[in-house]
From TrEMBL:
The name this protein goes by in its record: RNase H type-1 domain-containing protein
Organism: Araneus ventricosus (Orbweaver spider)
UniProt GO MF annotations: nucleic acid binding; RNA-DNA hybrid ribonuclease activity
RNase H type-1 domain mapped to chain residues: 1-26
SUPFAM superfamilies: Ribonuclease H-like
Segment forming the signal sequence: none
């Protein structure tokens, strides 16, 4: 005849381990909804993309759009969208035709500096009154 004797009887550490083993396991709920996980990944990728984009500061597009987040745009038709984007990057017939004709770049008749969209829209005194009327 056999008699079972627990191997941990009388040993305090073993008794505590036995009691802990008999208790129901506590479940740690670390559940993260998929949409939250995807958003976290998207945020990290956007941050990495922004750091890479910030290193491209000599890029013309970086100058007009320093953030990688998409621009909020109003509803534009194709022609309006093309005009707006050409103005944003500074490529217009007036300012870039010289490249096609192998001529020197055009200069502003008033300021004698190289003609650019930025110069016309922001700096040139010839257009101060128009800027004030349109933008205050």
């Amino acid at each position: 005849m056999f008699c079972w004797i627990p191997g941990h009887s009388g040993i305090i550490g073993n008794e505590m381990a036995h009691k802990a083993a008999r208790r129901p396991a506590t479940v740690v709920d670390n559940f993260v909804p998929l949409c939250d996980a995807l958003q976290a990944v998207k945020n990290q990728l956007t941050k990495k993309w922004q750091r890479t984009w910030d290193e491209q500061n000599q890029n013309k597009l970086h100058e007009i759009q320093p953030m990688v987040k998409p621009l909020k745009t109003c509803a534009l038709n194709q022609k309006q969208s093309v005009v707006l984007n050409r103005l944003r990057i500074g490529h217009t017939r007036l300012t870039h035709k010289f490249l096609l004709l192998s001529e020197p770049p055009p200069t502003c008749t008033r300021c004698q500096c190289i003609l650019s969209v930025k110069h016309i829209l922001v700096h040139c005194p010839n257009f101060d009154i128009h800027r004030r009327n349109r933008f205050g």
